[in-house]
Design brief:
Elements (H helix, E strand, L loop, with lengths): L4 E2 L4 H34 L11 H20 L5 H5 L3 H28 L2 H7 L3 H13 L5 H25 L5 H23 L5 H24 L10 H28 L2 H8 L2 H13 L5 H17 L11 E3 L2 H11 L5
Antiparallel strand pairs: 1-2
Helix pairs in contact: 1-10, 1-11, 1-12, 2-9, 2-10, 4-8, 4-9, 5-8, 5-12, 6-7, 6-8, 7-13, 8-14
């Protein structure tokens, strides 16, 4: 289990925590579809008759800014001289590296995947992440994999492969840029989790979240300006953008993150993992309801196999074991975030 400080939590508090976890899971599951809805709204109100102010670059940067301001307000008390003195130079290097991966690279890849593929395909491809994580843990950490999670990851991977095989056999479908970008996001997420297991032992949650979101926004901004010129942020001051960001930031960023942090501090670890496993199922449902993405027969067949894999991987958690977590560390957060997938920032 993750390295978290454990204390007794009352049954009522644990149930409340579990409720907040489920709310967060639902919010995160809707993030993919809501992002595309925002793009569509922006397209209806172009700037100068042709520029969409709700662009990929603007939403990702503004979303990270909203998240960073929220984290500063929530975790300002953790930025003490004592906490900062515990962080070594190598810890700072690891923190910066993880901030680049989880704060800039992975969200960028997910946003690109959403613009180049469907929400459903992006979610399905993301299910290869558990198997990548297990492989990296074996080769990089020399960990012995647990039987049930490994079997579940293999079954999920088989479901993804079956989906795209049936799609290609039926309609000549080929894996495109969006699917490859989603797969790359899954691989980098797994790498970040492995690094976090080793390098985030002395870093508090508040310091990690603020550095990740803030540095992620800064790096994304300057890399985009360097590679694609400043014109991609020319509409960053658009009133429509920030009006929608207030809603997006309040519901997805602030509401989702608050419910997630509150819930995983109080709910049982096994229950958090079990609830998070339903994120891809809920994500496909939101894509159908909000975007009208009707799953093909191949997606339905592969989806059944993926759900079976999720159930197999969660088999140990069905027994209801696990302790309630009162204090969460940066390392614990990264491991739990991996289960909940994309969070809109």
């Amino acid at each position: 289990m993750a390295n978290a400080a454990l204390e007794h939590v009352s049954d009522a508090e644990a149930r409340r925590g579990m409720l907040f976890v489920w709310i967060a899971v639902i919010i995160f599951a809707s993030a993919n579809s809501i992002v595309l809805l925002l793009f569509d709204v922006g397209a209806q109100y172009p700037v100068d008759g042709w520029r969409n102010p709700i662009s990929f670059c603007n939403v990702l940067f503004a979303g990270n800014v909203c998240a960073c301001l929220t984290m500063i307000a929530v975790y300002r008390k953790e930025w003490t001289r004592e906490n900062l003195s515990k962080i070594t130079k190598s810890d700072w290097a690891s923190l910066i590296f993880l901030a680049i991966i989880t704060g800039a690279l992975v969200p960028s890849l997910m946003f690109l995947a959403l613009t180049n593929s469907t929400v459903t395909n992006t979610i399905l491809v993301g299910r290869i992440e558990p198997l990548i994580l297990i492989a990296l843990s074996i080769f990089m950490l020399r960990e012995k994999p647990d039987f049930w999670p490994t079997l579940g990851a293999v079954v999920c991977f088989g479901g993804v492969a079956l989906t795209f095989f049936l799609e290609s056999a039926g309609s000549g479908f080929a894996i495109g840029k969006g699917e490859l970008q989603a797969a790359a996001a899954a691989a980098f997420t797994s790498l970040a989790t492995v690094i976090a297991k080793v390098r985030l032992k002395n870093i508090s949650l508040g310091i990690f979240t603020v550095v990740r979101t803030g540095l992620g926004a800064i790096i994304f901004f300057w890399v985009t300006v360097y590679l694609l010129t400043f014109e991609h942020f020319i509409d960053l001051t658009s009133p429509l953008l920030w009006q929608l960001m207030v809603i997006y930031g309040a519901v997805i960023v602030v509401g989702g993150q608050y419910c997630w942090f509150y819930g995983i501090k109080r709910a049982k670890t096994s229950e958090v993992s079990l609830a998070s496993s339903f994120t891809p199922i809920a994500g496909v449902a939101f894509a159908f309801v909000l975007l009208g993405e009707v799953p093909s027969s191949a997606v339905l067949i592969g989806g059944v196999v993926i759900v079976l894999g999720i159930m197999v991987g969660q088999f140990p958690n069905l027994k209801g074991t696990g302790q309630a977590v009162r204090k969460i560390t940066a390392r614990y957060l990264v491991e739990r975030e991996r289960e909940a997938n994309f969070k809109g920032v």
